[in-house]
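Quick one: structure for this chain?
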Amino acid sequence: MPAEIIQSLLNQMNELTTEALHQLHEMTEEQFEDFATKRELLTQKLEGYRNDITDGHRVQIATLLDSDPIILQRMTFLKDEAGKWLERKGTVRTQQNAYQHAYVGDSLFVDHRK
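Got it. Here's what it folds into:
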């Protein structure tokens, strides 16, 4: 019975990972977050069957882990892009603030030319 549950969890994780790999360059940050959440839940469920995992299951897990660097590379790229965007936005805001002073509307300018 535990072997069937473990296999079902591994199949779900494999399907999730395969789908992520196929849609890797179209996935949004939210979809990556959803992927990570679902995968974490499956991993936690597998953790309960740690003592029942066979060598065959370990091979499947190793195959799934081989995909991690590819997915992680894309996630890191998106994180870096978001960081660059925030940095540019901060630079633009700083430049705008330098030119947009809050002037007092009832001030007076006196020219003392002769």
